[in-house]
């Protein structure tokens, strides 16, 4: 099918559907200012300086009917988002106005923009690389402060610079290897190849290690609260939420199903799942609740295993222990047992709650230090994994073959920035954008 032409003038509504204070129609492409001028009553857009607003009215050129009073913002190539002459019409935020304005633009020869086509043009015109374009999408979709920060870091080329830096080292090494192949007497020692590759490999591994945290910052995490009946799960959920969401009773087996509640810990959107108490039971409803609880624990990003320290210690259920935090509840009551691996918490007095929040944050995002680039995009993860595999190959290979593996690692890294990628890859990236972005 091929990528859409860069030459056409494209137009789209850039603001979300529905009514709003302001609505924005975007236009971009060669001749877009001349096209807009045919609808514009006011200062001639073709004579307006880039980056300037002007006030006027939008008219239907055929009937001379005024469609709305509006602001017009003009950008001149290459100083625009797309790198082309572009304009934004800021109208009143009425769907009726926006539709009519768009219609009039189409009648004057603009065509509807495809999803993400403005950003696609920015990428194809060299205004940003593919990783930055993907950050635009991540930023639009960011639902937490952590996700916003990461997307913004990507947009300001944080990842791109890191990839460029790693690639440079590999190019230099490649040149040395080439020289050695041409003039064996003055080239690199085999050990030198490994020495140079080691830190590069570490950097790639370091980036890959941030992927789980990056994904959680972008999409949020699910935390399951699991434990025996009466362990204090519902009370802890309420304490974390700060309001009474779940029913708390002294009767074991109150929560027979599960319930979900959204909360935020250190800027990360979290869905906490309160589950049925885990115990041997003959009650059919409770039994399926218990099975479901263990299932939810298996699927959660993090499990809180709760055990009441004022009662004899229960037998722990089968849980994914590597991603389970152990919590000793009712710490305001005298302990029957103590165990260092358990964090002592009282939902009643709030004791240990802050420490628990910190531990949750640490477990979810701990691999990815604040202030660094986190990988959150599946395409980047996949390319980095390939780069890592090729670098490992290069470490093992005889020096005359190491170069081939290094070249393949470089290709994988270049894909992240969108150098020499297929149209299919580009298409897949931009398909997820909305129209008008
Ligand atoms: N003293 C004390 N009692 C608690 C605490 N947390 C829960 N409980 C009590 O333990 C009982 C069971 O609590 P609940 O949250 O319903 O446990 P769940 O069955 O695991 O959901 C209720 O009577 C709660 O009031 C706590 O931190 N301190
Ligand atoms: Mg409960």
From TrEMBL:
SUPFAM superfamilies: P-loop containing nucleoside triphosphate hydrolases. It is found in: Cytoplasm. Residues 220-365 form the TrmE-type G domain. Belongs to the TRAFAC class TrmE-Era-EngA-EngB-Septin-like GTPase superfamily. TrmE GTPase family. Exhibits a very high intrinsic GTPase hydrolysis rate. Involved in the addition of a carboxymethylaminomethyl (cmnm) group at the wobble position (U34) of certain tRNAs, forming tRNA-cmnm(5)s(2)U34. This is tRNA modification GTPase MnmE. Mg(2+) binds at residues 234, 255. Pfam families: MMR_HSR1, MnmE_helical, TrmE_N. Signal peptide: none annotated. Keywords: Cytoplasm, GTP-binding, Hydrolase, Magnesium, Metal-binding, Nucleotide-binding, Potassium, tRNA processing. The keyword GTP-binding applies. Homodimer. Heterotetramer of two MnmE and two MnmG subunits. Binds 1 potassium ion per subunit. (6S)-5-formyl-5,6,7,8-tetrahydrofolate binds at residues 26, 88, 127, 437. Its EC number is 3.6.-.-. GO terms for cellular component: cytosol. Its cofactor is K(+). Gene3D superfamilies: P-loop containing nucleotide triphosphate hydrolases, Probable tRNA modification gtpase trme, domain 1, tRNA modification GTPase MnmE domain 2. Its main location: cytoplasm. It comes from Meiothermus hypogaeus NBRC 106114.
């Amino acid at each position: 099918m091929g990528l859409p032409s860069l030459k056409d003038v494209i137009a789209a509504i850039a603001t979300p559907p529905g009514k709003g204070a302001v609505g924005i129609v975007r236009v971009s492409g060669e001749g877009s200012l001349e096209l807009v001028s045919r609808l514009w009553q006011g200062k001639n857009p073709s004579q307006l300086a880039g980056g300037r607003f002007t006030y006027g009215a939008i008219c239907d050129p055929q009937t001379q009917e005024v469609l709305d009073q509006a602001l017009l913002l003009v950008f001149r190539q290459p100083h625009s988002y797309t790198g082309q002459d572009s304009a934004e019409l800021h109208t009143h935020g009425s769907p009726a106005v926006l539709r009519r304005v768009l219609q009039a633009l189409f009648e004057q020869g603009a065509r509807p923009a495809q999803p993400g086509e403005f950003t696609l043009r920015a990428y194809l015109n060299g205004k940003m690389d593919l990783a930055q374009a993907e950050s635009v999408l991540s930023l639009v979709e960011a639902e937490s402060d952590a996700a916003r920060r990461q997307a913004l870091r990507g947009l300001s080329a944080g990842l791109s610079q890191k990839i460029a830096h790693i690639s440079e080292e590999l190019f230099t090494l490649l040149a040395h290897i080439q020289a050695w192949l041409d003039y064996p007497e003055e080239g690199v020692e085999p050990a030198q190849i490994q020495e140079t590759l080691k830190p590069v490999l570490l950097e790639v591994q370091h980036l890959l290690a941030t992927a789980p945290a990056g994904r959680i910052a972008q999409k949020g995490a699910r935390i399951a609260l699991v434990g025996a009946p009466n362990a204090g799960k519902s009370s802890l959920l309420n304490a974390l939420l700060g309001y009474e969401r779940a029913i708390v009773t002294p009767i074991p087996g109150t929560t027979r199903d599960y319930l979900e509640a959204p909360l935020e810990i250190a800027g990360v959107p979290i869905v906490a799942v309160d589950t049925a108490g885990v115990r041997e039971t003959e009650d059919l409803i409770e039994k399926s609740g218990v099975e479901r609880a263990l299932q939810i624990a298996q699927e959660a990003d993090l499990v809180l295993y709760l055990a009441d320290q004022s009662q004899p210690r229960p037998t722990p259920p089968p849980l994914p222990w590597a991603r389970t935090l152990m919590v000793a509840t009712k710490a305001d009551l005298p302990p029957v047992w103590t165990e260092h691996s358990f964090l002592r918490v009282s939902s009643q007095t709030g004791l240990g709650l802050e420490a628990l929040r910190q531990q949750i944050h640490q477990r979810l995002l701990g691999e990815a230090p604040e202030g660094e680039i986190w990988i959150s995009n599946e395409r980047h993860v996949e390319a980095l994994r390939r780069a890592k595999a090729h670098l490992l190959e290069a470490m093992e290979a005889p020096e005359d073959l190491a170069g081939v593996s290094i070249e393949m690692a470089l290709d994988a890294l270049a894909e992240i920035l969108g150098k020499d990628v297929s149209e299919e890859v580009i298409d897949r990236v931009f398909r997820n954008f909305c129209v008008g972005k």
